[in-house]
């Protein structure tokens, strides 16, 4: 099945740079022997009090994903956002690969005051 035929992958993403990177990663993973498969690190318990920052990151995530035509849940979840708010090097998918390009870098810029959000009518 073609990547663009999948319900959750918009044609623009499938045919673009992100789609090519996704396919390359899938092919690389499929080629690995079971013994070579990486183990996922356990996510640390979230013990932050960054509620306002996390809420801003949710808005940023929604905006970035709407623009790219990607479902936000494919990029980051609420726990990931809390971990990013607490740690620039949090072990979450949103801080690497295509998710970093789409959202992670902007999230860190928002966190460090290098990016601001503003509304213009119905757009953020």
Polypeptide structure, described:
This protein is mainly α and 124 residues long. It has two domains: 1-39, no CATH class; 42-124, Orthogonal Bundle (DNA polymerase, domain 1). The chain is built from five helices and no strands. The chain has helices at residues 11-15, 17-31, 51-68, 78-86, 97-111. Helix 3 (51-68) crosses helix 4 and helix 3 packs across helix 5 (97-111). It is flat.
Low-confidence stretches: none
As for the number of domains, it is 2
What is the CATH T-level topology of the largest domain? DNA polymerase, domain 1
Number of strands: 0
Largest sheet: none
State the distance separating the first and last CA atoms: 35 Å
User: What structural category do the secondary elements indicate?
Assistant: mainly alpha
Radius of gyration: 16 Å
Query: SSE order, as H and E?
Result: HHHHH
From the spread of the alpha carbons, the general shape counts as flat
- Broad CATH class of the largest domain: Mainly Alpha
What's the quick description here?
This protein is mainly alpha-helical and 124 residues long.
Task: Spell out the key features of this protein.
single chain; 124 residues; DNA polymerase, domain 1; 2 domains; mainly alpha
Task: Explain the layout of strands and helices.
Layout: H1 11-15, H2 17-31, H3 51-68, H4 78-86, H5 97-111
Helix pairs in contact: 3-4, 3-5
